[in-house]
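Work Package 4 report. The design task specified in the project plan requires that, given a folded chain encoded as structure tokens, an amino acid be chosen for each position. We show below one input record used in the internal validation round.
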């Protein structure tokens, strides 16, 4: 199977593996997800892919407002993977592989204007008490623009919790273009 087949529509089962070091490809898949998100003036259109960092298997994909309610891309990935394994999102760490990583076109949020739980907290709580499972790394395409919440401290909070954050360069312009579609012209 080639990547192009995979980009169209829902993934066939079993999900294909990509070289776990091919960060650019995973970020392209996350951007592909972001394209699915409906434009809305009050948030960004973001895409995310949850991956087993050891094998390159894709565990879940998500985009802003994919699931019911005011849902974020990273949140959708976690909820979908949790649902597929019959656990609540709060317990998703129990079913994640030991080296789970997430690719997101935009730095995970640390404050939501709606008051919903930020994605940083959702990611941090995936860590199991023994430290064996949970999301270990976050690959991000761009820093969050200072449009809605000023400076986003998501990256530093993740790092404080021992979750490495890695910028994947190369797609910034497209990511921001997709993210801000539907925003008022300044
Ligand atoms: C990330 C998303 C998404 C944002 N950031 N990483 N993934 N929509 O899926 C961040 C932005 C918040 C606003 C509005 N966007 O979303 O700061 O309404 O969307 O809670 O703060 O807050 P709500
Ligand atoms: Zn978020």
């Amino acid at each position: 199977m080639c990547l192009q087949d995979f980009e169209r529509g829902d993934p066939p089962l079993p999900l294909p593996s990509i070289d776990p070091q091919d960060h650019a490809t995973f970020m392209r898949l996350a951007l592909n997800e972001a394209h699915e998100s409906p434009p809305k003036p009050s948030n960004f259109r973001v895409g995310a892919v949850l991956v087993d960092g050891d094998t390159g298997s894709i565990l879940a994909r998500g985009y802003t407002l994919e699931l019911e309610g005011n849902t974020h891309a990273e949140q959708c990935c976690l909820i979908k993977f949790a649902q597929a394994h019959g656990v609540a999102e709060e317990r998703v760490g129990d079913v994640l592989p030991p080296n789970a990583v997430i690719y997101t076109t935009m730095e995970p949020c640390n404050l939501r204007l709606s008051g919903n739980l930020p994605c940083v907290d959702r990611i941090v709580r995936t860590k199991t008490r023994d430290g064996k499972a949970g999301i270990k790394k976050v690959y991000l395409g761009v820093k969050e623009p200072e449009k809605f919440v000023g400076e986003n401290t998501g990256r530093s909070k993740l790092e404080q919790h021992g979750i490495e954050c890695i910028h994947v360069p190369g797609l910034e312009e497209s990511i921001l273009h997709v993210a801000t579609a539907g925003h008022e012209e300044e």
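Helices lie at 3-7, 23-34, 73-84, 119-124, 154-160, 172-180. Validation will be extended to a larger panel in the next phase.
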